[in-house]
Amino acid sequence: xxxxxxxxxxxxxxxxxxxxxxxxxxxxxxxxxxxxxxxxxxxxxxxxxxxxxxxxxxxxxxxxxxxxxxxxxxxxxxxxxxxxxxxxxxxxxxxxxxxxxxxxxxxxxxxxxxxxxxxxxxxxxxxxxxxxxxxxxxxxxxxxxxxxxxxxxxxxxxxxxxxxxxxxxxxxxxxxxxxxxxxxxxxxxxxxxxxx
Length: 196
What we know:
Elements: E1 3-6, H1 11-21, E2 27-30, H2 46-61, E3 65-74, H3 95-105, E4 113-123, E5 132-142, E6 158-160, E7 165-166, H4 172-178, H5 180-193
Helix pairs in contact: 4-5
């Protein structure tokens, strides 16, 4: 594969994927640059949504497609926002409103443990019967006050106790080493090297 379509329009994800995939020397094309609209994400699981996005982008672009579905899962909220992370506070999508809702829901909770979760899917073609699937997670906790200006989404509130920083306070290279997306992508690349 010399070229693949990235099934995302999220600027933060696009930056992370471009950095993580740079060593492959592949031409990574965002779906928006090919006029491919975002796929519906009606499923209850990350893996089903990632498969739907990859299949949609591959079919529309006529290229292999890479898609992820990821989000933050909060223990005290029964795993929410989960697959609804990007639209937690409704449409139009807003990181600020999503974070406000999350912090409000946790106001009276003592357990603030959370983890980011990511599933990445690579489909060689739209009808690929053996998509390559990898996952990664990143444990932390939710803090009441935002810290840091890097990252996106819930990163300013996602605190890493062992580092004493939020995800938004990490340098991008460090974040990519530790994050759910970085872990999932490295696992996916390892599978590809093994001949998956």
